[in-house]
């Protein structure tokens, strides 16, 4: 659902921008931010403008396009009355950097925010700082000379750790924000989702004496035994096979209930723009490797190893099959334990275990990586202090996480977090590519020794306390809290499993939109989904894939493929 909202928002903003950008070339003159000339010979100003954490000698005000935050959860607390310009984050920025935000516009995340961005552009009132939803919008803003060059600001004011974080993506993230060798934005990073993970009821496996799965044959055997021998006690013929999504059978990085691992066994990467043999972009869903993968899935469905009603299940239905014990198998990711945490409320003896499977003959699993940058922080061209955005990012995603030691300040952030309140003017995130398993070894050592001093970030230390509490409850023979179990199982057990698995990565080369997508993509997407469902359920034979490819090309697929390659060339 989240990816669908992002896609719709992206297409909407592209359409709106095409009608508005031509009329906002002089938007800088209409900005109302109060700016004052700065004496660059003043050492205090010069230092503040060229280092990550130095405070400005006078308050620097900036306008921002803000994502709406509900502060109602803070009623009755010490933070009652906090708002978008006076909250734990804005106070932190003010105290550390001497900067203060003024909200130019505020909107809910998603389509509402996209509309506000487009209105700001069309009205010539671009805020000093805002987040834009995709690279297509970023490129349009650059081509119309509306945003500031952040190259020097990044060089001088991005902390060493921020640079290290971006470097962990091997250049894939920062390169998306680079035009004509200039850094025009700070990208929001999307950490690796890791490979697809198979989750199975280990208590059922133990009851049947089944070993852990590696190959697709192993997976088939286990699910067959679940169905035929009924270790869950559902009654003959009532246990359900592999739970599968019917809106996204595959093709979303980090997608839930998706079959990406099975497609990858055949070298198929649906819905991804990948390199073909000549180095050009090709759409994975229409490549010949798809056909044998679909034939395999049709075979699994015919054997009832895939949920026979998957095509009509809702999201709630799928989850209920798992938590109620009707099914003991599903594909997810390293955080899949959260999907089935409620199982322990219904059956405390249930045991879900994760496996990086099915694997290829060499013991590896191949995954496609997701879009490394989901959005971009931009600065209005003409704003006197473009480095403010970079300094704030360094403070939020480095200093506050890793270096802040003031217990009172940390308590305030913990209080906000416990109430699920955001509030930062920077509606983005910057984190290491391998963030979900990066420190798992340090966690394990800390949990064994009780020494958490090697955990660097404040959030890691908070997590350590939670994991230790969970292990203590298990050690004392207490029934585990489902939430505590889910947290430990995802961030320690499964993260460690993924870290030590043989994972190969395929990097898609295009994540944007093209002019024809706004009109043609909905039809092509519908055609693709119908093809999956009909072939897998046996309504059509795998040969129907060939007809789908032909129709896809004629209905706009060839045009869009041409546009994608042109966009890559122009970038």
Helix and strand topology:
Layout: H1 2-20, H2 43-50, E1 60-67, H3 88-97, E2 99-107, H4 111-122, E3 129-132, H5 135-143, H6 151-157, H7 160-167, E4 178-179, E5 182-183, E6 186-189, E7 197-201, H8 202-208, H9 216-229, H10 260-265, E8 273-275, E9 281-283, H11 290-302, H12 315-323, E10 329-332, H13 343-346, E11 352-355, E12 364-368, E13 373-379, H14 387-403, H15 407-418, H16 440-449, H17 458-475, H18 482-499, E14 502-506, H19 517-536, H20 544-570
Parallel strand pairs: 1-2, 12-14
Antiparallel strand pairs: 3-13, 4-5, 6-13, 7-10, 7-11, 8-9
Helix pairs in contact: 1-4, 3-14, 6-14, 16-18, 17-18, 19-20
- Number of folding domains? 3
Largest pleated sheet: 3 strands, antiparallel
CATH architecture verdict of the largest domain? 3-Layer(aba) Sandwich
Mean pLDDT: 92
User: What proportion of the residues form beta strands (DSSP E)?
Assistant: 5-15%
Distance between the termini: 29 Å
Helicity range: 40-55%
User: How many β strands by DSSP?
Assistant: 14
Widest sheet, order of strands? 3-13-6
Signal peptide: 1-22
InterPro entries: Bact_solute-bd_prot1, SBP
Pfam families: SBP_bac_1
Organism: Paenibacillus borealis
